[in-house]
Design goal:
- The protein contains 19 helices and 9 strands.
- β1, α7 and β2 form a beta-alpha-beta unit.
- With 434 residues, the chain is an alpha/beta fold.
- The N and C termini lie far apart (57 Å).
- It has 2 domains: 260 residues, Rossmann fold; 120 residues, no CATH class.
- The strands form 2 sheets. Strands 3-2-1-4-5-7-6 form a 7-stranded mixed beta sheet, with helices on both faces.
- The longest helix is centred in the middle third of the chain and has 19 residues.
Length: 434
């Protein structure tokens, strides 16, 4: 335990890695992972600690988990929670990689860090705490930045899974390309910041997950992989369908004045500005990643909810339908203040592909989108333009009825429906600062 306590007093990355080398050597010496996992599960304390997992998977499948080797790169809000649950699930060997240190602001989302850990490497911090949770796991911690010079050190050893929890596009793309080139299974996390809805988190293939022109970061992620490495799919990705609720904050230097963030970068290309983060969401991202990996390692197949992306042509149809309706109803299209991307937001984020009057949950998944041919966007308030905060999605018949009514009549006769729609449109106005 003296070795673990020393981690908190490290002053340099070199010292951290020297200590990790020593600890890993002592833990891994003369250990065969396959043989050790079976005997380990026979240990009275270990079998009791993992009893719920064993009951869920069965002993043989849990043995597969316990004999596995997983690499987690990026140990912030997402990666620390993923690594923690892999450990608690009995993964037998972990390599934890991050070049950064724990900061005070990390504590709203990190899985184990305390104020005493502030200033210490995130990798060493996790290793220290992990020794008190499941000391039988062989944990190697590396205070490293992933790049071409560290690739072999990090990805050698035939890991069963690699978790990409990096928040820098350049490094992320480089890592994923390296995993594909080496034939390694990899699960990648996209941005968890500025989001609040845990029910919108999904796991899907790369080509299914980021077909969203409203997400510039993720769009860049896909473009870079395709342009630089010819990769369009075959990588599992954890992502959120939710539109971010906040934007990257402007950077202010020591003087308090807005300055160029690149002047303060410790590592070129890494973000200096802050994105607001609700700590629960990156934690859930990490939990989702750990659950996905553990079930994969155990050989238990879990069918994920399908991700449904309407082709962009469908949104163009809805946009064109709106324009034609405006021309017919008002004699002009000058009041249409939305483009195709904004129509996508209105349909997906505000009305979830259903009529505003549809209260039933019966249409979900792919079936939900079959009704697109029956839907039209129209103004909620006839006296205001067709903008983000004044468009509702209705079936054709409902649209005709709405056009012949007034908001005063709806408020009086259907107060719940009126309150629902005004609440949704108010959210749209807040999202876009209208």
């Amino acid at each position: 335990m003296q070795l673990f306590r020393k981690v908190g007093k490290l002053q340099t990355i070199r010292e951290a890695n020297e200590l990790n080398d020593l600890m890993s050597h002592k833990l891994l010496e003369d250990v065969n992972p396959c043989e050790a996992s079976r005997s380990l599960l026979m240990d009275e304390i270990v079998s009791e600690q993992l009893t719920r997992n064993i009951q869920f998977f069965g002993l043989e499948h849990q043995a597969k988990v316990t004999s596995s080797y997983v690499v987690v790169i990026g140990l912030g809000g997402v990666g620390s929670h993923a690594a923690s649950m892999l450990l608690r699930s009995g993964v037998g060997r972990l390599l934890l990689v991050d070049f950064d240190q724990v900061s005070v602001s990390s504590l709203n989302r990190h899985s184990v860090a305390t104020r005493e850990d502030v200033g210490t490497p995130k990798a060493s911090c996790l290793k220290k705490h992990f020794a008190a949770i499941f000391p039988e796991c062989h944990v190697d911690a590396r205070v490293l930045l992933f790049d071409s010079s560290s690739e072999d050190e990090i990805l050698s050893g035939h890991p069963d899974f690699v978790l990409d929890c990096i928040d820098n596009i350049d490094t992320k793309v480089s890592l994923l390309a390296a995993c594909v080139r080496r034939g390694l299974k990899v699960l990648s996390a996209t941005g968890a910041g500025a989001r609040a809805d845990p029910t919108r988190i999904r796991v899907a293939d790369l080509k299914e997950s980021i077909n969203d022109p409203l997400s510039r970061t993720v769009k860049s992620y896909k473009h870079r992989l395709k342009r630089d490495y010819g990769i369009e799919g075959g990588i599992s990705v954890v992502f959120s369908l939710e539109k971010p609720k906040a934007k990257l904050l402007p950077f202010k230097g020591p003087s308090g004045e807005a300055e160029n963030p690149s002047d303060y970068q410790i590592v070129p290309g890494f973000r200096v500005r802050i994105i607001p983060v609700l700590g629960t969401i990156p934690a859930i991202f990490g939990q989702v990643m750990a659950s996905y990996v553990v079930t994969q390692l155990a050989g238990v197949r879990v069918h994920m909810e399908p991700v449904v992306n309407i082709d962009i042509d469908h949104y163009r149809v809805l946009h064109q339908r709106l324009i034609e309706h405006e021309e017919l109803q008002y004699g002009t299209t000058m009041q249409v203040q939305v483009d195709v991307a904004e129509v996508m937001y209105i349909v997906k984020e505000l009305w979830h592909g259903r009529s505003a009057r549809d209260e039933s949950p019966k249409e979900v998944g792919r079936a939900m989108w079959r009704s697109v041919n029956e839907l039209i966007l129209i103004r909620w308030d006839h006296t205001k333009p067709a903008c983000m905060s004044n468009l509702i999605l209705l079936r054709f018949k409902e649209a005709d009825e709405h056009e012949s009514s007034s908001l005063e009549v709806i408020r009086e006769n259907e107060p719940e429906f009126f309150a629902k729609v005004t609440s949704v449109l108010k959210r749209a106005a807040l999202d876009f600062g209208l």
